[in-house]
Amino acid sequence: MNSERLISFRQVSVDFGERTALDNVSVLLDQKRIAVIGSNGSGKSTFARLLNGLASASRGEVRVHGIDPIRQARLLRRRVGFIFSNPDSQIVMPTVAEDIAFSLRGRGLSRTEVDERVSRMIQTHGLSHHENSAAHSLSGGQKQLLALSSVLVSEPQLIVADEPTALLDAANTRRISNHLLDEMPQQLVLVTHDLRLAERCDTALWFDQGRLRRCGEPRAVIAEYERSHP
Ligand SMILES: Nc1ncnc2c1ncn2[C@@H]1O[C@H](COP(=O)(O)OP(=O)(O)OP(=O)(O)O)[C@@H](O)[C@H]1O
């Protein structure tokens, strides 16, 4: 196992009142690209949210690269970037450039270094004509590209992406998927309903009614998932 990328769940359950969103999940993961699949309400987002402390385990233990996401929240935020399916929930600054730069605050970088990193993101992710645009004036897809840029600019070691291409057109979906899956050096946890994307990962987890039904080679896991959801 690669301890630098180790994600471990030991008998983890998450309850929301009477409802159990995750039920006694135990798994060790050290792959670079990890897909999370399953039907609506099966617990995928809850699993993803445990990785960055947005949800906490009702029982059991979660460790991300050796860090306890709740008790060591500050340390974790430096290490893990989260991309939501709804970008509105993560855009925090008025303009595109300011929002991307915001993620670099408190990192001890020079103004020049910040500006360079921000322009690189703006160019790479097709926001060149929107550098000084008000973030709220962007289209849904452009906001998604902005949210993605604001996370990637700080180069976290783990990216957790929950349906990151849901709002994107075909060309941007292809580009962002290729970036996340093939170009980016970081570890990726990708929650997706797009089974072709899941197939390109190194391992896949299939959640079913809060339980981890299968974890392993993506093609085998997906084939079984499809058989049970004809
Ligand atoms: N904050 C919450 N409060 C109450 N119930 C919740 C909360 N978050 C999730 N749940 C419930 O937990 C279960 C799992 O939800 P989760 O969002 O993890 O599913 P999902 O697999 O990501 O679904 P989808 O594919 O629809 O996004 C669902 O029954 C959901 O209603």
TrEMBL record:
Phylogenetic classification of the source organism: Bacteria, Bacillati, Actinomycetota, Actinomycetes, Micrococcales
Similarity-based family: Belongs to the ABC transporter superfamily.
Organism: Agreia bicolorata
Database matches in Gene3D superfamilies: P-loop containing nucleotide triphosphate hydrolases
SMART domains documented for this protein: AAA
Protein name: Cobalt ABC transporter ATPase
Positions of transmembrane segments: none
CDD domains, A to Z: ABC_cobalt_CbiO_domain1
Alphabetized UniProt keyword annotations: ATP-binding, Nucleotide-binding, Transport
Domain ABC transporter: 7-230
Highest taxon listed in the record's lineage: Bacteria
